[in-house]
Design brief:
binds glutamic acid, binds arginine, seven-stranded antiparallel sheet
């Protein structure tokens, strides 16, 4: 008994002592800096973030809203993932010049390709502004009113806080509404494509290897930031010049070894590390399985068609990859949460929390938060499940239904905001639908719809579904819709949208596809949305209180980091292997040998180009190899999530050693519960990137533009 308690104490202590956590760069100086140094870091917190001097944060812009990137030369050369630049690489590709397939390399500035619409955003300043955001809100007890006042305060501050006229103000909440932070940012709008490896390198292993270790993907692409003559952000112009950054990363070819310090700097999107046990239970037992089941069915249908038909294969490639990405992540996440006993660990944590509440005499403030969570999550369960089914079946995975849903929203815009708003949206839709229909195949979608409606009718809580839907022969209905609805092709859609608002609404309401979607959407809007929103608002308020209690009552060494919210964060750890299951151990580095082991000639996921095979056979790795082998990927204990794609992996001295792009399958639950034993992020070794640029693509001038360093060698010779 006593031993067990000691063991538990040890486990929880070592959980704290190990890493995990995504920290705010301006607040590293306290505990993080010490811990980072104990893990091997040789820099100071000020080297990472400094408001007054240039620091590392000046080299890490967010890439086009969703990914991260880093500046790696004095001339604005920018590195990010292949899957982050995918859309741009695709947009410059034609059948004759397929850069996705063959790769693309500009051999000088003039050959770089502009990408209208693509932006990168730097952080200039980070400052706590909680008091101002919460001004005059403490007295409001109605949650909706309180949130409204907070939003009003934020809008006012956004307009009044000082900044230069080419900069932007942004205010984001941290710790579920317990802290607000102000960011000043600069957004560059002339971002040109410099280079991309062929998909056989940049996307090697594709969906089969996605979220999987051991991995062998060269998931990188290169861009360049351009600025006006004053080095400020500007729209694309041929007169723009390469941006001179305040800081750029030296690139280290010293390589990594197990237990080396690593740090990842980027823009993690969303985590939920402080959910109560009841919420995690719901996610594991109900919500994730529901979403997985829907996507499973959709993917099986699409895959069947893609395997038989090359045109469909191309049409559905990107769509399939994006649906499969989170499908696979949720499966891993669910397994990981179960295996790591996340629910029980949360229950233990909650018990401990309640003891602390009692000991601190804080029952009035926090005594009921957990029981209210229990009740509220029970109450929201059927609504949350219905919502996920609706989103996955109607809005996301049956294309015809999702098209119909957009028209349903268009109708709502007319009734709520009038004709002008209607016409604007209509024009937008007509333009956007062109792209969507290019990659639409009615035969595929009809089969998807048949399967997904069956799931929807039998699995989504019946009490919220329209009666006539549940009682229908769905197969017959699907077939009828695909025979008669104008939504099955772009011309039909344009016909539906032809004329003034009244005419359009009339035509839509005669269309079998639209009428069907409208029936489902109206039931959802009426039976699910209001109650879901009401209960969800309550959960948000409870989460804020719970978080406040955790912050207040935890010992100061407890490492309570704020959940990810797409703002700049630092996570750090070590290069480390892991044991995913009994008797299995994965070492932390993969090599080009592994690419050759996985090679399947002609396969769309595992093909390898002759050029790479030749370089491999000649062992022509230049200065990038290590004992006759070429490192490709490595893993570490850095706590990352979606949005960290393209983030720099940095060594103890501040040099670039890798490029983050994924996590390991067993550790994808780290968005909800980080288990240091099995959560690992996956990075491309920067030496593989340099090798591909130099030896494979023959673009050595790009490597020459970088500052290549070798800190380990220097240390030895000194
Ligand atoms: N899993 C990585 C991420 O979440 C890579 C996704 C892109 N690759 C793919 N095969 N779908 O974004
Ligand atoms: N591939 C992810 C992204 O696009 C990063 C991997 C992760 O979620 O950890 O951001």
């Amino acid at each position: 008994m006593k031993f067990l308690r000691l063991l538990l104490l040890f486990i929880s202590f070592s959980t704290f002592a190990q890493q995990g956590g995504m920290w705010i760069p301006s607040l590293l100086e306290g505990m993080n800096e010490k811990e980072m140094k104990s893990l091997g870091m040789k820099m100071s917190a000020k080297d990472i973030y400094d408001v007054n001097k240039s620091s590392m944060k000046d080299a890490v812009p967010q890439f086009n809203g969703g990914c991260t990137s880093e500046v790696i030369s004095s001339k604005g050369l920018l590195l990010t993932n292949h899957h982050c630049g995918y859309g741009q690489i695709q947009s410059h590709s034609t059948v004759e010049n397929d850069y996705l397939e063959k790769g693309f390399w500009a051999m000088n500035l003039a050959e770089e390709l502009p990408n209208p619409g693509v932006v990168v955003t730097f952080i200039v300043k980070i400052e706590d502004i909680t008091a101002k955001v919460l001004e005059n809100t403490q007295s409001l007890s109605n949650e909706a009113e309180k949130q409204k006042k907070i939003q009003d305060n934020i809008s006012a501050l956004n307009n009044s806080l000082p900044k230069e006229n080419w900069q932007e103000n942004k205010i984001r909440t941290f710790y579920d509404g317990n802290q607000y932070i102000w960011f000043v940012t600069e957004t560059f709008k002339d971002v040109r494509l410099v280079g991309a490896p062929p998909s056989s390198i940049g996307k090697f292993g594709s969906d089969t290897d996605n979220w999987v270790w051991p991995r062998h993907t060269g998931d990188f692409s290169l861009f360049r930031i351009y600025a006006d003559k004053n080095n400020r952000p500007a729209e694309y112009s041929k007169d723009n010049v390469p941006y001179t950054p305040k800081h750029y990363f030296p690139v280290s070819i010293s390589g990594v070894q197990e237990n080396d310090f690593t740090m990842v700097f980027g823009y993690p999107g969303r985590t939920q590390e402080y959910l109560p046990a009841v919420a995690v239970e719901q996610l594991v037992n109900e919500l994730n399985p529901a979403k997985i089941e829907v996507r499973d069915a959709a993917l099986k249908v699409q895959d069947g068609f893609m395997r038989k038909d090359k045109a469909i294969k191309i049409q559905y490639a990107a769509k399939y990859a994006s649906v499969a990405n989170y499908w696979k992540k949720w499966i891993g996440e669910t397994k990981g949460l179960k295996k790591s006993n996340a629910v029980q660990i949360k229950r233990d944590f909650e018990k401990d929390f309640m003891t602390k509440v009692t000991n601190a005499g804080k029952q009035a403030e926090y005594g009921n938060v957990l029981s209210e969570f229990e009740a509220n999550y029970k109450a929201i369960a059927p609504y949350a499940l219905s919502r996920d089914y609706f989103i996955e079946v109607v809005m996301r995975n049956t294309e015809l239904l999702s098209f119909g849903y957009r028209l349903y929203q268009l109708e709502t815009i007319y009734t709520t905001r009038g004709e002008k708003a209607f016409n604007d949206r209509k024009a937008n839709l007509i333009e956007g639908f062109d792209e969507l229909y290019k990659d639409f195949n009615a035969n595929v979608d009809e089969k998807v719809m048949e399967q997904l409606l069956e799931i929807y009718a039998t699995k989504s809580p019946k009490e919220f579904l329209p009666q006539e839907f549940v009682n229908q022969d769905l197969k017959a209905k699907t077939s009828e819709i695909f025979k008669t609805s104008k939504l099955t092709n772009y011309n039909g859609l344009k016909e539906l949208l032809n004329g003034d608002a009244k005419t359009v609404l009339e035509s839509m309401n005669k269309d079998s596809g639209f009428v069907f979607v409208k029936m489902l959407a109206e039931a959802y809007t009426k039976n699910v949305v209001p109650k879901y929103e009401e209960l969800n608002l309550k959960n948000t308020a409870l989460q804020r209180t719970y978080m406040k209690g955790i912050l207040e009552l935890s010992p100061k060494e407890a490492r309570i980091f704020p959940d990810a919210n797409s703002t700049l964060r630092v996570t750090y750890g070590k290069v480390k292997g892991y044991a995913p299951s009994d008797a299995v151990y994965y070492s932390p580095v993969t090599y080009l040998d592994g690419v050759m082991e996985k090679y399947i000639p002609g396969d769309y996921e595992f093909d390898v180009s002759q050029k790479l095979i030749d370089l491999y056979n000649k062992k022509d790795f230049g200065i990038y190899g290590e004992n006759g082998k070429l490192p490709v990927n490595f893993i570490g204990t850095n706590h990352t999530t979606g949005g960290n794609s393209g983030s720099p992996a940095i060594d103890a001295y501040g040099n670039l050693i890798g490029l983050n792009f994924d996590r390991v399958w067993e550790g994808t639950m780290s968005d909800i519960y980080y288990d240091p034993a099995i959560c690992r992020n996956i990075m491309v070794d920067v030496r593989y990137i340099l090798f591909v640029i130099d030896k494979y693509a023959g673009a050595k001038y790009l490597v020459d533009e970088m500052k290549v360093v070798h800190p380990k060698k220097k240390k030895k010779t000194k």
